[in-house]
Amino acid sequence: MTLNITTVTETAMMKVQEGTNLSYKEMHEFFTEVLNGGVTDDELRDFIVALSDKGETVDEITAIAEVLKSYAKDIPNVNDKVMDNCGTGGDRSQSFNISTTSAFVLASCGVTIAKHGNKSVTSKTGSSDVLQALGVNLEFDAGRVADELNESNITFLSAPHVHPKMGQIMRVRQTLKRPTVFNFIGPCISPLNLDYQFLGIYDREKLMTITQVLKRLGRENAVVMNGAGHMDEATLLGDNHLVFLRGGEIEEVVLDPTDYGLTLCDKTDIAGGDGNENKEILEAVLKGTATRAQLETVLLNAGIGLFVADKANSIGAGIQLAREAVETGKAYAKLQEVIRNNKEAGQ
């Protein structure tokens, strides 16, 4: 039987606009058609808004993620287990690039990091902005990316470069200026088959939903978290809400930073700026010369990541391992290694 694509897409759009959940199959078919040019910008915009207003289900988010990942560029021959610590954005916190800074700490502690990110949509500076300020090459080359992962255990993947079929989605998303399903989808569609994931989200109500999505996507270990202040990072602003996925089991945790010897701070203490300002903060953290709030915020996030990646047997041990990486110069050396390799590749 021949599939009537027009009927499939029109039915999907009608159901979502009526507030009806789609099945995995219906959403998979709809987004396959989106990526093949069968849905106009206006239709996609209306669909995304209606989906957000309805509330996205595990089936719907998983289907979108698997379609988009299937169209991503391939990265072969990666030897180790890989982690991404990309957050959703959308918290409008205007903080410095906490997850990008944490990525260098994680890599310096032996975690293989494939940091998936984008330019800013809802804040001053996205990960791509600060990486460009550092001189990191975000143009995609599969061989170079695989070499970086295998030799330096860290690489950075710019979403527009690894997802060539997502141009329309990115164009429509830019017009909305509000968090949508694509904030949740972004961290789920790394072109690599991730083993570990640290995923901060701006919406606390979505913690369990996104954890279930990561379980469906085959993550070995993961944490989905909403920080105090409803940020998409762990913060020192108060209690952080985390959901861990370990070996197929899910556990909810409320984390008080003071339980780990860290000092509470205000949101202004972790404010960022443009790409160059955030570059300076990132370098200061990795050198160990940043403010206490900036440094300890990164140590908390890196410590949780080290626990998720099985490099530490507890969050407290992970924080201590991250602190040692900064104090011994390992974290800053990893940054210098990345910058040096990028300069050599560009010569």
TrEMBL record:
Mg(2+) 1 binds at S99, E233. It catalyses: N-(5-phospho-beta-D-ribosyl)anthranilate + diphosphate = 5-phospho-alpha-D-ribose 1-diphosphate + anthranilate. Transmembrane segments: none annotated. GO terms for cellular component: cytosol. Mg(2+) 2 binds at D232, E233. Residues 80-332 form the Glycosyl transferase family domain. One of its GO terms (molecular function) is anthranilate phosphoribosyltransferase activity. The keyword Membrane does not apply. Anthranilate 2 binds at R173. Anthranilate 1 binds at G87, N118. Its cofactor is Mg(2+). Keywords: Amino-acid biosynthesis, Aromatic amino acid biosynthesis, Glycosyltransferase, Magnesium, Metal-binding, Transferase, Tryptophan biosynthesis. Its EC number is 2.4.2.18. The keyword Disulfide bond does not apply. Pfam families: Glycos_trans_3N (PF02885), Glycos_transf_3 (PF00591). Residues 15-70 form the Glycosyl transferase family 3 N-terminal domain. In the C-terminal section; belongs to the anthranilate phosphoribosyltransferase family. NCBIfam families: trpD. Homodimer. This is Anthranilate phosphoribosyltransferase. The lineage of its organism: Bacteria, Bacillati, Bacillota, Bacilli, Bacillales.
